[in-house]
Amino acid sequence: MTASGAAWGRFLWGGVRVISSGGEGLFADLYLLTMAYAYWREGKTQPRAVFDLFFRGAPFGGHYAVVAGLDRALRFLDGWRFGPADIDYLASLGVFPDPAFLEFLRDQTFAGDVDAMPEGTLAFANEPLLRVTAPLVQATGVETGLLNAVGFPSAVATKATRIVRAAEGRPVVEFGARRAPARDAALAAARASVIGGCAGTSLLEAARRYDLTPSGTQAHAMLMMFGELEGFRMYARAFPDNLVLLVDTYNVLRSGLPHAIQVFRETTDRLGRRPRSYGIRIDSGDLAWLSKRCRAELAAAGFADARITLTSDLDEYVIASLIREQGAQADAFGVGTKLATADGQTSLGNVYKLGACERVPGSGRFEGVIKLSENRAKITNPGVKTVVRFYDGDGRAVVDEIRLADESPPALPREFFDPVDTWKRKTVPAGRWEGLLQPLVRAGCAVGGLPPVAAAAERCRTQLASFSDENLRLLNPHGYHVDLSERLWQEKQRLMRTSGT
User: pTM for the full model?
Assistant: First the structure.
């Protein structure tokens, strides 16, 4: 079973709990467990707490991020427990004076609720991507793992949308596994890249695991080993209908391209027809100039339909320049290092903050709390919150509203105001709205199943289409309006006045 259709351990898609052998409890910063010890010592383990996972500033100088990594989040929550070796290690630290606390940990599995924006959703600063409601020790203990699970894939998916948009409809393939910071990161990057719009990946394990399209041609080593012309011929005999030849091993125009054209002719004669898919790849040199020269010479040789793929340390800015400024002749791009490492911001920079707590265990009554700071960006929004996206009559996303989860459904027409610069107003006269936080886990069990990666990619594509080009442009994008409901804004102002006094 692929991860897109399977569950892990006790997260079987039907609500059945099956305890797996994994143990993720130690994937936590020490302070999370020292706080848990203090809670336990004072008998404060049962009140439920509500934490929000969000980011304060969008990556890559943009205004949005793409949600990804929920598969990793579910795996982590599934395995969140303390096995015998974990307990022995904690005991060896000598940090926790009462050994009964370790016995308490031994019995813990995640039994809370998680609501999340579906993968492929465009999110904005301060909006909860995930909302965790769980007993205090559990809600605290999963912080590090959830931030780790979501941060890097979301950064890669966001990077992918920027690269794919820069390519202006030309397919982009991810092939950065060898440059990813770790094996797990390579798999996560391949999956997130496809959510962000890439056509496929070179990494076979990711393709198998997530039902992605694998892609690959040949490398310089084959041509260095057997000679360029013979290497091309060998590859053509092996893959006559998927024939992409790497032409920059020695000299693109004097050697690589002439040899490729010769092999295209030989293959056409042997098959009695053109190869079904064929072309060249250029991996070094002046890509724009070379691609234009190659296009002209391919056309003169009768191979005008040959595809040209460009690679070589590309990112969104290089691709945009190649297409818009330099007139490069490219049918596809391969992007490695700068995609698989989310170059420019290797993680989302997400945070995990308490929003509300249950003062009386089991009461179901949550009280909003707030973190204050002299840095305005670090002041949190209190309460149990959700996010609603409003669309105008043309289906264009026009404003998001962070609101308390128990507020009545929103109605249009509606006037919105900026939560900081309150004199800035925006009226949405008609349209529809969408609640962005959806149930992911209830009472420790997954709700339904994650959609396939292809569905998350389609959601991302649809989401992007609902925003204006000005919101999405690479440089100096126009800001998108994110509001607080009036009730939430009033509660925030109240807590800002009274908290800590």
Answer: 0.93
